[in-house]
Design a protein that fits this description.
By secondary structure, the protein is an alpha/beta fold. Helices cover about 40% and strands about 20% of the residues. The strands form 2 sheets. Strands 5-4-3-2-1-6-8-7 form an 8-stranded mixed beta sheet, sandwiched between helices. A 5-stranded mixed beta sheet has the order 11-10-9-12-13, sandwiched between helices.
């Protein structure tokens, strides 16, 4: 789209923007993803813009798309840090809406620890607690909190809400949350937290939109992206999940190793590697990238003919299938499997192979439906259905933020 066309689309769309809005933010280590939602009424949200600022700290790219997925803004620029990125976003937003009418900003926070099972308004005490959890998610939590602190400096009057990736898994049975470790004070925070909860909660919330799915049945959701995990649900609640103490555990990922014998870490320490070297190895140099020696991008590996790339793919698929078997055991059976996130929604051959290897569970793949990426990709009479449902963590953040703000406002009115 030409600059003139983008500007025309932008100007024609601005007249539709509501007065009251909500902003959702997912602040990563070198990126800032966001979505702007307007209030259709006090309980309903309509998405108006979605975008990201990528490659912060280098040659950044600021992209915005409207609700139809059409690009309305695109700009290359140099940004040194998240403060500059957020200031850029706020300056752009100020041209779309009156920032004083922004009801709140919801942030994706990877780790809420044992304290938070629901979204929470961010205060100094909440922020300090979330900072204390940094050792449990060292490569996610600092970036998440940076978005909060920066926005607080730039726009202190705007309410901010923390929405947690761990919260959806807090109600799992104790046997799913505990490790076989002694009751030692230093181990108090060590438990199987589970992650990708915003994605899983979104999927749980839209199951009723698919009448052919037994929404309250035994369902396995495979969130397969650069970060990957699986979750077993029953009655739309988390029963078991593959990630545990940190987002490092579970199936192999783009650059993370997934499950590994803890003795490997002890061995590497004995070999003279530093704590930082081991952390970088496990979080940034492993997974698809480490095994293939080529890329952490599944699409790129699928196009490669190298043996290492093919083995990386095989390792990923193998462990996803193993995880499905384990989660089916935890559920005592399975009614449906749902693919979501980047690989799950778009990698046709990965879905095909996983489904073929789950034939023993009762999966009967419809190859034509899979190639066309239809919502249901199994035969009509398949004992276990397999679906593709796109996830939307940004909308989940906005919905949770709106619900909390409405609750707080109602309590304020009742007390006044």
């Amino acid at each position: 789209m030409t600059d003139e066309a983008i500007e025309y689309a932008h100007n024609s769309f601005m007249s539709q923007l509501p007065i009251r809005s909500l902003l959702s933010i997912n602040s990563g280590s070198s990126s800032l993803k966001f979505a702007l939602f307007g209030m259709a009424n006090k309980d309903a949200l309509r998405e108006y813009y979605r975008g990201q600022i990528s490659s912060i700290g280098a040659d950044a790219l600021f992209q915005v798309k409207d609700e139809k997925g059409e690009e309305t803004h695109r700009k290359n620029l140099r940004l040194s840090d998240h403060r500059q990125a957020l200031k850029l976003l706020l300056d752009w937003l100020a041209k779309q809406i009156d920032l004083s009418q922004l009801l709140g900003v919801g942030h994706r926070i990877v780790h809420g620890g044992a304290r938070f099972t629901m979204p929470v308004r961010i205060t100094a005490d909440v922020f300090a607690y979330l900072q204390s959890l940094t050792p449990l998610a060292p490569n996610h939590q600092p970036a998440n909190l940076l978005g909060i602190s920066t926005l607080q400096d730039l726009q202190p009057a705007i309410p901010q809400v923390a929405c947690f990736d761990t919260a959806f898994h807090q109600q799992r049975p104790d046997v799913e949350q505990g490790f076989a470790l002694p009751a030692h004070p230093k181990l108090k925070a060590v438990r199987r937290y589970g992650f990708h909860g915003l994605s899983y909660q979104y999927i749980a919330g839209v199951l009723s939109d698919y009448p052919d799915i037994e929404a309250d049945g035994k369902i396995i959701v495979a969130h397969l992206g650069h970060g990957a995990s699986l979750c077993a649900m029953h009655k739309r609640r988390s029963i078991a999940t593959t990630m545990t103490f940190t987002p490092l555990d579970g199936v192999p990922m783009g650059a993370r190793c997934g499950s590994i014998d803890p003795a490997v870490v002890l061995y590497l320490l004995q070999q003279g590697m530093s704590e930082k070297e081991i952390s970088d190895l496990l979080y940034f140099q492993s997974g698809l990238l480490g095994v293939s020696g080529l890329s952490d991008d599944m699409a790129e590996l699928l196009e490669s003919s190298s043996q290492q790339a093919q083995f990386a793919i095989e390792l990923f698929v193998h462990h996803v299938v193993r995880a499905i078997g384990s989660l089916a055991a935890a559920l005592g059976g399975v009614d449906a499997i749902i693919f979501t996130a980047g690989i799950g929604e778009h990698a046709v051959s990965i879905r095909e192979t996983i489904c073929q290897r789950c034939a023993w569970l009762g999966v009967q793949l419809d190859e034509n439906a899979n190639r066309a990426s239809r919502p249901c990709i199994t035969e009509k009479n398949s004992p276990v259905q397999v679906w593709i449902i796109p996830t939307d963590e940004q909308r989940m953040i906005a919905e949770q933020t709106l619900a909390l703000i409405n609750t707080d406002n109602n309590l304020h009115r009742m007390s006044s």
